[in-house]
């Protein structure tokens, strides 16, 4: 794989940060949810955001 240029690296960092933020927010929403279906919805979203963040981090290796 070729090296990332500065713009690509900045964009990647931005995307990683955005997915981390989404994960944290969705986890917080899941903790506050009382409806089991809604709680599961937020937990699934948080996990998806974390999975995407991990995939994006893979581009830094």
Global morphology = elongated
Poorly predicted tracts of residues: none
Instruction: Report the structural category.
Output: mainly alpha
Strand content: under 5%
Organism: Desulfosporosinus youngiae DSM 17734
InterPro entries: Ferritin-like
Protein name: Coat F domain-containing protein
Description:
This is Coat F domain-containing protein. This protein is an all-alpha fold and 61 residues long. The protein has a domain at 20-61. Helices cover 82% and strands 0% of the residues. It has 2 helices and no strands. Helix 1 (6-32) runs antiparallel to helix 2 (36-58). The protein is elongated and about 45 Å long. The model has no long low-confidence stretch (mean pLDDT 94).
Short description:
This is Coat F domain-containing protein. With 61 residues, this protein is mostly helical.
Keywords for this structure?
single chain, 61 residues, 0% strand, Ferritin-like, Coat F domain-containing protein
Topology (elements, then pairings):
Elements: H1 6-32, H2 36-58
Helix pairs in contact: 1-2
Protein name: Coat F domain-containing protein
Organism: Desulfosporosinus youngiae DSM 17734
């Amino acid at each position: 794989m070729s090296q990332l240029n500065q713009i690509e690296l900045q964009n990647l960092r931005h995307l990683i940060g955005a997915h981390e933020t989404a994960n944290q927010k969705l986890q917080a929403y899941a903790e506050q949810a009382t409806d089991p279906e809604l709680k599961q919805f937020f937990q699934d979203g948080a996990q998806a955001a974390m999975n995407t963040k991990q995939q994006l981090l893979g581009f830094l290796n």
